[in-house]
Amino acid sequence: MRQSFLSISKLSEKPYAVIIGYPKATKRQVELRIAQMKKLGINSISFQGDLKLGLINVLGKGYVGIVVLAKKQTKKVAVKIRRTDSQRKEMQSEAKLLKIANSVGVGPRLIDSSKNLMIMEYLDGKKIGMWIKELKGKGSVSKLKSIIRKILEDCYNLDRIRLDHGELSSIAKHVIIGKSKTTIIDFESASTKRRASNVTSATQGIFIGSGISKSIRKIYKVPSKDKMIEVLRNYKHNPTRESFDKLLKVLKL
Questions:
Q1: Out of 55-64, 160-169, 211-220, which region has the weakest mean confidence (pLDDT)?
Q2: Listed residues 90, 121, 152: the one ending a domain
Q3: Is the Cα dihedral 236, 239, 242, 246 positive or negative?
Q4: Are 188 and 98 in contact (CB under 8 A)?
Q5: Is residue 1 part of a domain?
Q6: Domain range holding 172?
Q7: Which residues have C-beta within 8 Å of that of residue 85, sequence separation ≥ 6?
Q8: Structural domain tally of the chain?
Q9: Where are the alpha helices (DSSP H) in the chain?
Q10: Residue 44 is part of a domain; what is its CATH number?
Q11: C-alpha to C-alpha distance for 63 and 66, rounded to whole angstroms
Q12: Considering the domain boundaries, does residue 54 fall inside one?
């Protein structure tokens, strides 16, 4: 699909201003956000994506912000714009958490941030739930296993540095299968102050009692719930590489 980019000088006009100051902002608030974009080198935005807010399409929407496709000079990037009704007062804290995830090769690469904006690497791809639904044909089992193993390896690396994502039990929305990169996204609920449980949350989100698990079971035979819970319990009490490898073996990955 052709991507059409709009100059940020047009963003103070309706209906675009609603997205820049979502869900409700004064003209001054919108102007300040546009000024921050300009300062960070953002020159245009493309309103596209699977999610529609009013008349406008966006890449994503969370409790903290709205994500849109943009250009920083000529490079495509993803920009997360802080919602005006967010309980978070700034975006730099989330940017720091994403930077920690980046230190072990997880997440879209952080590029820059300000009070109301976070600029990240743009990943052109599909959310994992949709990707699995569309997975068909020869080699689908090996493709699926390869992706799941990559996600769980990323989760293990996050556990290792004690960064808990916080939302991986609802994994369908939090992994992008990109053309150049597959990774966990959206660290707005992440924390280094609670016990990291990424591997256990993601395994449950992928294999146990979710829409994704039903789709996966149609593609390859997974172990019983009891078997999975047993190895997960062992990993939870002893989160070593050895116990993680045992989990991968039980999951036939």
A1: 211-220
A2: 121
A3: positive
A4: no
A5: no
A6: 125-250
A7: 23, 24
A8: 2
A9: 16-20, 27-39, 92-102, 128-134, 140-160, 198-207, 211-219, 225-237, 241-250
A10: 3.30.200.20
A11: 9
A12: yes
Q: Are 212 and 172 in contact (CB under 8 A)?
A: yes
What does 16-42 look like in DSSP terms, one character per residue?
Answer: HHHHHT-S---HHHHHHHHHHHHHTTE
DSSP letter (8 states) at residue 50: S
Task: For residue 20, give the nearest of 228, 180, 53, 184 by alpha carbon.
Answer: 53
- Pairwise CA distance, residues 18 & 113, whole Å: 21
Domain match, 151 and 47 both: no
| 210 and 109 assigned to the same domain | no
Q: Identify whether 44 is part of a domain.
A: yes
Structure tokens at 226: 């009891």
Task: Indicate yes or no: pTM above 0.70.
Answer: yes
Are 166 and 81 in a shared domain?
no
Q: Six-digit token pair at 124?
A: 């052109």
Confidence class for position 1, pLDDT limits 50, 70, 90: low
Instruction: Read off the pLDDT band of 167 (50, 70, 90).
Output: very high
Other beta carbons within 10 Å of 63: 11
Same domain, 144 and 172: yes
